[in-house]
Structure formats: structure tokens, C-alpha cells
Amino acid sequence: MTEFDLIRTYFSDVGSRRQDVVLGVGDDGAVLQPPAGHSLVMATDCLVNGVHFPVDAPADAIGEKALAVNLSDLAAMGAQPAWVLLALTLPDADERWLRQFARGLGRAATYHQVRLVGGDTARGPLNISVQVTGFVPTGTALRRRGARPGDAVVVSGTLGDAALGLSLWRGRADRDDPDVAYLLDRLHRPTPRVSLGQALRGRATAAVDVSDGLAADLGHLLAADNLGATLDVDRLPLSEPGLRFGGRERQWQAALTGGDDYELCFTVPRSRLHELDAIASRLGVALTRIGHVQPEPGLRLIRSDRTPVSLETPGYSHFPEVR
Ligand SMILES: [Mg+2]
């Protein structure tokens, strides 16, 4: 198949049709109409074979995840996602792989009501770059900056599942076991907290998505204001399958240092904590208060009985030598 055939066959109708797409896939550029009174929010991520997903990961999961990780960044900004660009290099035009990849990408795009509006394909090592644009009412974007001493630190969902899922994938665990299937799903099909991010506008003082382990990502948020925090590791939200497979100690370590959870971590004034219950039940997502912000920089970890604990490994980094 020629490049033109590939694009037309698999990428000309991906995601939800949107009124604000004046001109989508097929021209030299997309023409898009942002709503009045809003600012654009843009994020991009590239996924490299064997680095960001296992080489033997299913193609539909790669398509879904390539979009989900970008949507997670927009969620952390409180943005409503709208438009997607895709740049794909492939070693060969493997039609079956492409069909499955496009299906996974399309599933996530339709679910989140975003539209693929353009892109490029070329021959090369498998590499997937996705760019997502969304918008926020002007002046309301969530940022990493803004936390204040005394704010509660809150996380969504459960943490550490994807790290455990990766070790189960590599270890060829029994994929028919429901616990294993759940943990592999958390690895391959993360759930970007798009609606939660928008609900946090005007409530959270700062937010970040958890892509590289809670310790690293919360660390970025705190460092933005030269602040610190104390976290109670016994309060970290862990899934039942994670606890059954990993055990409590291993799972809270995975929560802090594993990657790929794509949950949100945010700070909120204690006076507004009660507002989170309604949001959690409306959106069907757990929101767990795990600690509080302090003026002294650094992350302090304690057990519920207040004994201090430490991490075994630093947060995941693609470039460990520059940490
Ligand atoms: Mg991020």
C-alpha cells in the first residue's frame, strides 16, 4: 500500500465528528475553530517501541495508549481535549498491525470525543508521536505551580497497577486469570482522568498527572513552588488485584516509583476537601487524600503510626544519567 492508501484506509475517520473541525484529514493542514473566550492547551508525547511499550504489546493497546498518555497531560491541565495529530513511522506497511492500531486509537478517540485531524506516516523504526490540543476557559488552566502549605495532597484511582502489570507481562503470567487481566489492562489501557481534570478547575491549587511514579511527579509539583509534603504510605490507594499479587509493601513502593499509572495528583485547600466527594461519586473515580503540603522542601514518607519509611528506587526515567 502507498502512504496515501494507508492514510485513507485507516486514518481518515478516527474519533468523534466535531463541529469545530472545519477541515480535517486529507489536506496540507487542518483548519480548526476554537471556542471564543478559551485558551488552547497542547501536549505531545512520542512512544518508542520497547521503551514506552513492550515490543510484543498488542497493536490496539498501543494505539489506545498513545492517545491516552496525551489526554492524561491535558487532564492535568484541566483542559477539554478536542483535536489529535499523529505522526507514525513503521518498518513496513503491516496492514493487520495498522488496522488494530487504528482501532485502538479510534476507540479512545471516540470515547473521549476527540477527532484525528491530520498526521504523517513514514518508513522507519516503529515510533508513534501524538499531539493533542484542547481548551480551557481563559485563565482557568491547572498548573504544577500553585500549591500552598497546608493543602491536602489527593490522588485519583489506584497506583502501582501498571508497574505490576509490566512485570506480569514480562513474566508471561497466566493472562486468563482475572487479576492478571486487570493489571495488564491497567498497563496497556490507562484511563486518562479527563473529566476529573475539568472538574478540578477552580478547586485544585496545582495538578500533575502520574506518569513516572508518584514520588517523581508530585516532586515536580512541589518543586515548582519550592515546597515539600508528608505522605502517609498506608493511605496510598492500591487495587485489590495489586494487593493480591504484589502485597502491600511492594505495591506502595510501586505506587511511588513505578510508572504508567496516568492518574491525577493534585493539591486542594482543606476547606474545599468536602467538594471532592460529590465529584468522586459523579465521575465514579476514587479520590484519596494521602498527605499534606508543607513549607519545607522534600518528600517525607511515613506509615500510619508515623514511623518514617524510605523508597527503594528512584522514579522511572528514560534518561537515568541526567537525573
Ligand atoms: Mg504529564
From TrEMBL:
Keywords, ordered alphabetically: ATP-binding, Kinase, Magnesium, Metal-binding, Nucleotide-binding, Thiamine biosynthesis, Transferase
The transmembrane segments are none
Does the UniProt entry include the keyword Metal-binding? yes
Biological-process GO terms, alphabetical: thiamine biosynthetic process; thiamine diphosphate biosynthetic process
> Which residues does Mg(2+) 3 bind?
D28, D73, D209
Statement: the UniProt record of this protein carries the keyword ATP-binding: yes
Q: In which pathway does it act?
A: Cofactor biosynthesis; thiamine diphosphate biosynthesis; thiamine diphosphate from thiamine phosphate: step 1/1
| Gene Ontology MF term list | ATP binding; magnesium ion binding; thiamine-phosphate kinase activity
Residues engaged in binding substrate: H52, D260, Y316
Which residues make up the binding site for Mg(2+) 4?
D28, D73
Q: Where is the PurM-like C-terminal domain?
A: 148-302
| A Pfam family the protein falls into | AIRS_C
InterPro entries assigned:
PurM-like_C_dom (IPR010918), PurM-like_C_sf (IPR036676), PurM-like_N (IPR016188), PurM-like_N_sf (IPR036921), ThiL-like (IPR006283)
Residues that hold Mg(2+) 2 according to the record? D45, D73
Gene3D superfamilies documented for this protein: PurM-like C-terminal domain, PurM-like, N-terminal domain
As for family, the record states:
Belongs to the thiamine-monophosphate kinase family.
Give the protein's biological function: Catalyzes the ATP-dependent phosphorylation of thiamine-monophosphate (TMP) to form thiamine-pyrophosphate (TPP), the active form of vitamin B1.
By what name is this protein known?
Thiamine-monophosphate kinase
